[in-house]
Every structure is written in structure tokens, then in C-alpha cells.
Amino acid sequence: MPVFRRRKGSLPRLVPELDDVTLGRVRRRVETCWSRGSLDTAVMALMSDVIDEAGQDWDRKAHRLAVLAGSAGRSLPGIWRQHSPKHHGALLLHAWSDLIQARQQDSTVDLHATRETCRLAAELLPADPTPWTLYLATLRLERSPSTELAAIWREIKARDPWNREAHLQALGYLSPDECGSSALVLDLLDGVRSLMPPDAPAAGLELTALVHGHQRAVAGGGMTALGAGEIWRRPDAARTLDQAAHYWPSPGFLHHAAALADLNLLAYALLKAGRTAEAGTVLHATGGVATPWPWGMDGEPLERYAHFHGRYASGDPDDGGAGRAASRRR
């Protein structure tokens, strides 16, 4: 499955499946079911197939579950689980749907029951890290003490050391906005920086932390917001951008399911750092596929992405002249 699928002449677009064409077809069928409030056996079979097809590519399996949970609403995952109570994918989709609903204001989701669902899924397929990742996400939502994190983290790392979703959940959990602090975030990054392969699914972890730090500074207002751009001049930030900008846009270098999401993140960070020529190269590599985050931090995400894509992403991957000229003008 190609990571960088381009449709010549296509407009910038938001598609949750990114470049996973098979998932996109199933998503559209699920959304049709959601609109009419029922789920037929043919669509259940499609969901089962698209989840099972990922095999032991746990990163792609998590991506597919996340997209389906976001498209299925609250009732459809419950219907599938009732129909197939011992299906691993049905249990995980129901748990992921619980997490989405639990983030809503005045939610009545019982996260203890969600954790029991995760345990059932873990028993059915012990090799899969996804149930433990979702378990971690429930602890994050409840702001549970960090002492509960270690055992769950060991279960995840034993199954998939560089799982993208798990690392992003841990980063959120340990952030000063949630259960942790800046020091705990640094501990997490220090613990993975020297060991993580440069093309691992979790390769964007440090860049994600930097963008969140920039966002936190902007939200602080006053002098903190005025100095937010200084984060990109720090040696660690510059080093992270240098490495990512050099390797990530190369076709096939990033091969995980959410590679296009990480390229969107990199393009955004490069723009914030004033590195517009490199940002243009990365925007071109996204093939016109935008993501809600991080573009949504500055306005309507597709509008923001389209603005910069139109301004800096050349139709010729070897022609970075417009971006370089803009960079020189800065």
C-alpha cells in the first residue's frame, strides 16, 4: 500500500483514512449506516475484514480502528459487539468509541467497563498492543496517578516497542496540561531518542512535543506568547527539524499508516520556524491530504493547509524555488 498516494490535479482535502484506500471505502459505507441508524451484516463483515487485514501491523490496525470509531458514531460499535461478542475487532472498536464519547462534555461512559472490554480483547489476541494502548487512554482521561502507568506501558512495549498511538497517548498523559510535567515529558523523550529507529511509527514523538510546547506558549499570552517562536531556535528543536526535513519527505522513508499525518506536522513546524523552502517540499509530499491537527490550531484546518500548500508546494518536487525565495525574503 503506497504511503504517498497522489491524485494529479486534486484539491487539498481532509480524509481521515489518509492514503489507506481500502479503509476509505469501508469508512464511507460505515458513514452511510450511521446516517440511517442501522448496521447490516455486510458492513459488519467489511469492518471485520479491514481490521483483520492489518494482521500484525499493529500501527495500521490502530489507525483503521481510530478512523472507523470516528465514523461509526455511538450506536454502531455497540450493535457490532452485540452481534459478535467474541470478535477482537468488535471489542476494540467498541472501546475506541467509548474513548471518543468520554471526551464529550457530560459524558456518561463508564471507563471501568471500557477497561474490562480491553481486557477481554487482550485475552482474545494476547500479541496485540492495542487493548493496552486503549487501557492507557482511559487512565489518561481519568487523570489517574502515574503509578498506574508503568505496568501498562510494559505490556505495550513488550508487544510493539514503537507503537505510534501508544507513544502519543503517553506523551499526552505525561504533559503538564494533564497528569505530568515538562520534566516527565523530557524523561520520556530521553528514554526513546537514542533507541528509536528514524523511520519508526513513533518517529514524530519529539516533534509532537515541540509543537505542543509552542502551542502552550502561544496560549499563555503576553510575553510568553511573543517569545513562542524561540522554541524553534533551540538546539534540540533545530536538530529534530533538520533530521525530519532531510529524511521524511523521501518517498517510502516513512511507511507507517499515519505517515501523512506526520508530514503535515512537520510542514506546520517548519512554517513556524520560518523554513518555508523545506516546508514546501514536505507539503508537496503530502499529496494534498490535510489533517485536522495541527492546522486547526490556527483556524479552519483545511483552509490553513490549502493556503500554505498553494503558496509553497510546487507541482515539481525538484522545484523549490518559490519556497526558497520566500525563505530568503524572511
UniProtKB/TrEMBL annotation:
Source organism (scientific name): Streptomyces decoyicus
Protein name as catalogued = DUF4034 domain-containing protein
Q: Which domain of life is it from?
A: Bacteria
